[in-house]
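debug: dumping io for the single-chain case to check the tokenizer round-trip. Nothing else runs in this session.
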Amino acid sequence: MTELEVDKLRYVEVIARYKSLSKAAEVLHISQPALTRYLNRLEEELGCLLFNRMTIPIQLTVAGEWYIACARQMSDLDENMRRGIREIADQEKGRLRIGMSPARAEHWLSHILPPFHRACPGVDVKFVTGGHSFMEQAVKNGNVDLAFLPLPISLFDLDYEIVATEKMVLVVPEGHAVLEGVLLRDDSLRHPIKLEPERLNGETFLTVPRDHSIYKIMEDILERNGVKPGRFVEYPDSSLTYKLACENMGLTFVQDTVALYPGYYKKPYFCTIDDIPVKSHIAAAWKRDLALPLFAKRFLDITAEVLNTSSLLRV
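debug: decoded output
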């Protein structure tokens, strides 16, 4: 409501309370003739009488009672709206601590931060990088507000929302023995080449650390298909295992989006030993029973939209 509309309601309420124009004018610190002129204009504007001035003391008419009731509702709605806007404005300022793997931070953030900054310019974003278990503990301990992790999430203390889904693919360099006699195609990233599991027996596998969920997914794929690897060689992240697999240092399982990350010149073939490639769900996780600030929810929503629409981040 405008200041003038608030004054209208206040004047009518005071007249109704004291049932006297002279007493109401005294309380409102205006002259009685000025208050009378004001009331006459309002009644003319509404097209009806708000007070019966033929009685002593003056009384509200039915229209006057309805005016006050409706005007109070409008005033309450206006106050709720303004209070809500103030709360939202306060929520658009603050600090947001985001956790994710180094590879995701490197390749996601240049796509996510610009639209988030435009939406929430008053939010200071800090980043923490690390492995899966480290990130879960960071959220649980309150050191990270929102972490982006592949499922499953092992800690009961965390809630999560899925923001993207990726295929797990086996990275095989060109000319590798496991591809002998296999019909190869150039679109293997979108349509992975099916290999018989026994072809992988005895092969070297390049892995991320055991606390990463990707390691657990790879381990499950190999065990379920009866593959007996030769050995495992551990490296810090899947971006590196992808590049080393391209250099024929072994085979590795990665999310299909890793192949979209720029910066490596060799292109391998992408395969699967399952009839349908295993999917990896990426989730945003936060501490259970902790209400996310509006700007944290905005970061989550923008991330999900970017991951599911950008051709640079989605196969």
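debug: round-trip ok. The mean pLDDT is 88.
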